[in-house]
Amino acid sequence: MLRGLTPAMPGGGAPGRPRPGLIPADPEGRRLVAKFFRALGDPTRLALLEFCASGERQGTECVRHVQLSQGRVATHLACLVTCGLLTVRREGRSALYSIRDPRELELLRLSQALVAEQAEEIASCTRVATSPG
Amino acid sequence: MLRGLTPAMPGGGAPGRPRPGLIPADPEGRRLVAKFFRALGDPTRLALLEFCASGERQGTECVRHVQLSQGRVATHLACLVTCGLLTVRREGRSALYSIRDPRELELLRLSQALVAEQAEEIASCTRVATSPG
DNA sequence: TGATATCATCCGCATATCCGAATAAGTGAT
DNA sequence: ATCACTTATTCGGATATGCGGATGATATCA
C-alpha cells in the first residue's frame, strides 16, 4: 500500500489559517490526484468515458465511436482502466469496458456545470506558458 | 456566447442505448471540459488551489508556499483564473487570489476519494503512450 | 525622480503527451 | 495448421506543457 494518500492535516500548517485538507499534503499524493485529472484531461478519453457510461462497451465499438486508430483507442482505454475510471472484463477475444464507480458521473456532472459557467474564459485560456490553444 | 456547451442529448445517438448526456456531445464542448481537467492536472496548481481554499492569498505568499520561481507561479495562477477556478482581486500592487466557487471543494473531495481507492493502480499507470511516470 | 515591491510576459530548453502505422499476441473457426 | 478477428505494444514524429531566468509593467514610498 502506498503511504500518505489520505488528505491529511498535519499539525504544522500555515500559521493562523485552517487547513481544509482536501488534497493530500505530501507531493506523492498530489501527483497522484494530478495524474487522475490528466486522465480526464483529454477529449477522446472523455468521449470514451461517456460512451461507456450508458453500458458495457466493446473495444471495437469504442474505436468506431471516437474514429481514431485502433491502437490509439486501446491505449486510451488502458489509461482509463489503470487510472481507475473504467473496469475491463474479458470475454473470448473481446474486452468489455464499463464505468468503475457511479460517482464518476457525479464528478463529470459537477465539472460540466462549473465549465459551463466559465466557458468563454476557459476557451481563452492559453494554459500555462505560451502555447497555441 | 459560445455554442453547444450544454450537455445536450440530440436525437441521433447510438441506437438502442440511452445517452447520459453528462458531457457536451460536440467536440468543442468536450475540448473545453478536457482543458478544465488539465488545469487541475498539475500538482503545483492543485497545491495552489488548496492553498487558496483556506482564504484569500497574495501572489507572493503563493510563491513562498510552492517554492517555484515567481514567474512560473504567476503563470500557474493565471491559468487557474482563466480556467474559472480562482478569482483575483487587485489591491495596490498585490493580487489576491481565492476560490471562485465552493463546489470546487466538493469536486476535489470527490476526486480525492476516488483516487484513494485506486492509488496503486494510478501510480502504476504509465499514462497514455509509453512515457516515464 | 529614483528605489523597491509585486506581478506579468517572453525566451530557450527538457520532458510529456498524442497520433497513425506497423507489428505482436491472443482467441475462435475452418 | 491456417486464417480471421480483436486487442495490446512499439516506433518515429509533431505538439503541448512545465521550468528557470531575464525582462517588462505598474504601484508605493522616500
Report a brief summary of the structure:
With 133 residues, the first copy, chain A, is mainly α. Chain A has helices at 27-39, 43-53, 59-66, 70-82, 103-117, 119-124; strands at residues 57-58, 86-91, 94-99.
Structural summary, described in words:
The structure is a homodimer of 133-residue chains. Chain A is mostly helical. Chain A has a single domain, classed as Orthogonal Bundle (Arc Repressor Mutant, subunit A), CATH 1.10.10. Chain A has six helices and three strands; from the N terminus they run ααβααββαα. Chain A has helices at residues 27-39, 43-53, 59-66, 70-82, 103-117, 119-124, and strands at 57-58, 86-91, 94-99. The first copy, chain A, has a three-stranded antiparallel β-sheet with strand order 1-3-2. In chain A, α3 packs across α4 (70-82). In chain A, 38% of the residues are buried. Residues 1-5, 8-15 and 129-133 of chain A have low confidence and may be disordered. Chains A and B meet through α1, α2, α4, α5 and α6 of A and α1, α2, α4, α5 and α6 of B. Chain B binds a DNA duplex (30 and 30 nucleotides) through residues 38, 42, 44, 58-60, 68-72, 74-78, 90, 92-95, 127-132.
Question: What's the SSE blueprint?
Answer:
2 copies of one chain form a homodimer.
Chain A: H1 27-39, H2 43-53, E1 57-58, H3 59-66, H4 70-82, E2 86-91, E3 94-99, H5 103-117, H6 119-124
Antiparallel strand pairs in A: 1-3, 2-3
Chain B binds a DNA duplex (30 and 30 nucleotides) through residues 38, 42, 44, 58-60, 68-72, 74-78, 90, 92-95, 127-132.
